[in-house]
Amino acid sequence: MLSLFDENGLLDIDSMVADMPSFRNIMEDGIVTDEEIATQSKAVVDLLHKVEESCTQGQLALFKEALAELSVLFLTYHYKQLQEVK
């Protein structure tokens, strides 16, 4: 069964990212270019359009909330790391 969580109940985002060919391709040479970011950005936008077209309004609302909360978590975690560098 497909799951978002590992055996400990934690969000398994590290494995998900590591398994993505897009991530492996971008990180292959250890350098992230503007072109790679632009290509990945377009791929994400295209995928989000597919999700939007495929979901019911209720599913889309739930997805939008989850995406927003995940973004809040990412940004606040990143901000906390920056605070610790100072």
Describe this structure in words.
Helices cover 74% and strands 0% of the residues. The chain contains four helices and no strands.
Strand content: under 5%
Largest sheet: none
The stretches of 5 or more residues where confidence is low (pLDDT under 50) are none
Total number of helices: 4
Estimate the mean pLDDT confidence: 94
Shape category: globular
Give the termini separation.
43 Å
- As a percent range, the share of helical residues equals over 70%
- Annotation, overall tally of beta strands: 0
Cα gyration radius (Å): 16 Å
Structural category: mainly alpha
Characteristic terms for this protein:
globular; 74% helix; mainly alpha; 86 residues; 0% strand
Task: Please specify the SSE layout and strand pairing.
Elements: H1 13-19, H2 21-27, H3 34-54, H4 57-85
